[in-house]
From TrEMBL:
PROSITE patterns: HTH_TETR_2
Domain HTH tetR-type: start-end pairs: 20-79
Listed name of the protein: TetR/AcrR family transcriptional regulator
DNA-binding region: 42-61
Length: 219
């Protein structure tokens, strides 16, 4: 009599906790330094700020494009989480929109726009997925405020995102310690202008995210 044997279950290799922490430290350091100094900051400087060796950085990100893409996706994912938080609020719909806009500015999303150069793969699946998630969620946040009669209906997702990007663009290299105060002050002026009923008729039509992509403005 023979006993049937079964192959031993295959072990699933999972990244070690310290490896995940190193990767997160690299992305955080890269985000900070790209914001402060632009996309051409030396990678070894990023590794130094992250507290890891160059070999660790290149093991996670074989080239600059891979690191830039991860930073862009990370910021967009955090922006999407802020939009989800706004949608989870059960009170005033416009107040939820305000909370989202200020949180979006804190992510320094405007600093990422120059990093999307002609050599950057704008259609990478990870980037596309993050971008579509943000666009859909922001549309929901705005749609809820429109339905509540609090947000003027002639404003599109593209209008809001480009305004936030322009108003929150950090003064790179200026070392201005009051920049955040100016950003949130001016964003609140923008938000007050978005309230319904509208006090004026906007020229043209609402800007779509697709139009921004064609102009090379959106990531």
């Amino acid at each position: 009599m023979t006993t049937a044997t079964h192959p031993a279950p295959r072990k699933v290799t999972r990244p070690r906790a310290d490896a995940l922490r190193n990767r997160e430290r690299i992305v955080t350091a890269a985000r900070e330094m790209f914001t402060e100094h632009g996309p051409d900051v030396p990678l070894d400087e990023i590794a130094r700020r992250a507290g890891v060796g160059n070999a660790t950085l290149y093991r996670n990100f074989p080239d600059r494009d891979a690191l830039v893409r991860e930073v862009v996706c990370s910021v967009m994912d955090r922006t999407a989480e802020a939009a989800e938080g706004a949608l989870a609020e059960t009170g005033d719909a416009f107040a939820a929109l305000e909370h989202f806009v200020h949180a979006c500015a804190d992510e320094r999303i405007s600093a990422l726009c120059p990093m999307v150069s002609s050599t950057f793969d704008r259609h990478h699946p990870d980037l596309e997925a993050s971008r579509e998630r943000v666009e859909s969620l922001v549309g929901e946040v705005m749609g809820r405020a429109v339905t509540a009669g609090q947000l003027r209906s002639d404003v599109g997702v593209g209008d809001l995102m480009i305004a936030v990007a322009q108003l929150s663009r950090p003064p790179a290299g200026t070392g201005c310690p009051q920049g955040d105060r100016f950003v949130h002050r001016h964003l609140q002026l923008l938000l007050d202008g978005l309230r319904a009923p509208a006090r004026s008729v906007l020229p043209g039509t609402a800007v779509t995210v697709g139009e921004l992509r064609q102009c090379g403005t959106a990531a």
